[in-house]
Description:
The structure holds three protein chains of three kinds. By secondary structure, chain A is an alpha/beta fold.
Amino acid sequence: MGILKPYRGEIFFGSKRIDGQPTEKIVMEGVSLSLAEKELFPQMTVRENLILGAFNKRARKKLEENLELVLDIFPRLRERQNQKAGTMSGGEQQMLAIGRALMADAKLLLLDEPSTGLAPIMVRAIYNGLKRLIELRQGFSILLVEQRVKDATEFARRGYIIANGRIVFEGDIAGDVRSSEFMHRYLGV
Amino acid sequence: MRVRLLALFIVWALHIVLPLALQGVPYAVFILTQMVFFTAFAFSFNFLFGFTRQLYLCIGAFAGISAYVTGIAVRDGLTGVLEAVVLGTLLTTALGWIVSVLSVRRRLVVIFTGIFTLAITLVFNNMVVGLVSITGGETGFRIRLADLGPLEVLPKNLRFYYVVTAVLIVLTAISYHMVYRTKVGYAYRCIMDDEFSAELVGINVSRVKTLTAAFSSGLAGLTGALYGLFNQLISPSYYSFTAIDLPSQIIVILGGRATFLGPFIGSAIIAAVNEALRFLGPFTQVVYGLILLLLLAFFRNGLVDFIRRRVVGWFY
Amino acid sequence: MDVSGLLFILDGVVLGAILSLIAVGLTLIYGLADVLNLSHGEILVAGTVAASVLLQYIGLPLFLSLAAGVLVTIGAGVFIEKVVLRPVYTLEGDERVLLGLYMTLAFSILLHGILITTFPTAYLTVNLPTPTIELNGIRVRTAQIFAGAFSSVILAILFLFLKRSWTGMAIRSLTQNEVGALLVGINVKRYRLLVFVLGSLLVALAGIIRSIVATVGPENGFEFTILALLVCVVGGIRSVYGTIVAGLMIGVVYSFLVYLIGTYLAYVALLAVVMVTLLVRPYGIVGEKL
């Protein structure tokens, strides 16, 4: 996303090369990132944080629409619309971070370990929200980095396993993955 | 390490010998005396900021407080010279210690300590100018040449020169030994490296910081009192931020923070630069600003560090 | 309360508004770039000096001179951001704050030296062609009221701008979380420059308003910086709202104290307040550390 520089290699989004590009250009291209560290604006309300998510010119036009969507999939955020982001719990903050990334009207949504450090009930709420999201909205992709295999495989259609910096598996994930090659690769058997 | 100690010895030796050698040269001893005074002020700042990261922007004010106390005591015949100096020094030691205790207790970040001490400087300046009846306001007051006892044999400049130099040498000798040879010094170096970890390991960081502050403030006070006696004129312009704090900071930055050679070398350079630029008159301020800017941009760690890296590299 | 009492409050409010204008620029710059711009007051003076020179020696009409002065101040601000602070941006945290402090201090000294030696007589006084009216036997300069109104309007516009506009929100977000702002697609470098421009503009306007009420001379730079710094500390060095409130409060209290105990002691009292604030609530009256 232009925050870190790759050691080697190139990154393409569609046919455009994006490594080396400034972050705001990458966002304009249609890539949006939500970090595990959240990086919210603590003294702004939930609403303000979300509105800022739509900062890029393209997203501003669909501000109301996307805002409704986010508040719909994460009802907790709707409840706490006018609460300052810094006063919320970890799970709520993570929802807000994801919601903010959604506001950017991206074609590719990058989700970095959204379940990190969260209580199971919160993880559940987040994944429910994500499932609702893909019901309500099409035409975009989500790249999810997760360590919680069960949640990730229930949610995703295609999976990649990275071990020691190399992709050791890529393929479709369907249904119960427990006995598949996927699990074999994941457990390193 | 040996190199460092050797360099220090050389510097000390030069300090003792130089003025005697240069006695014939007009004005030279005066410049040298000014130089050692500022070396002392720089040391004060260095111990505070270089070693313990306490940004005291009130060295001039402390020096001034001590000078005024000493000056008034001498002028009004309240005490003898020695007692007056001791009084002034004790006062600033206490003040510096209190400020440090407050900062540490309230966990003030570096910049806030800076602002706090800057406020002290401003208070000092304003009170001195405001309380005209006692302090003589902007113009200050003069005092007679103090009786320095056995040192009377030497001409005036040399007298003060050797007093201050003696203080400096004793001080640096003791501190050097402490920092590099004792357990206390070890604690010091731990704190300089990583304050938090030092705390975790059991070092009483607050005690080290407050004691250092007390010590440095005492040094500032002592030097300030002597400076006043030397100039025979106690006035706010001698102890303002631009007169004392700024040069001290430049010297420390120039010579290298947290080094023992730093203040000596920095002060020597500044004294030389001062003389060289004297012809500029009012333009000196401009040049100082420029020099400081360039220094910060390129030699952030000071000349001593720069030399150490380049020159010592040759030895290996 | 009789008219003379009101007069003092007016004096205080005007002074306070001017202080707020200066201090807000400082707060914004600190919040955004982690730099305590100690040359803030100096660039104000650079502007008034420029205006004064153009007015007195070149005979430019008042409005143009003032406008030029504002541009000079903004130019100085941009220069600071682009040139003076370049080595500072490679550092983080405490180191950045310290180096920024020293670099701006050095620049302030440099600028002060240049102004004092080149234009020692460039004083700026703006005399508005407004009447001096008499109320109950006390003469009131309506220019004062003008100054107060003008600065209040600017502050109000600023407040709305920061709260409502996209640019204003972007600026606020940058003072809270730089990474977050990046993620959302904000160009940090561009906004940093913008904040410096904004801060410089505010301080330039403050200089002009000040010259309506009192004469501004080339040697006043540091004084303005210190006052702004004190206001920022009391108001909370990262809080725009706190700074504005603190500015107004300090303006009124200070004017009142000057009347009571004289300039020097009033200043000392102000300093004492600041020192106590630092100890009790280092993050100002707003109080949050976030």
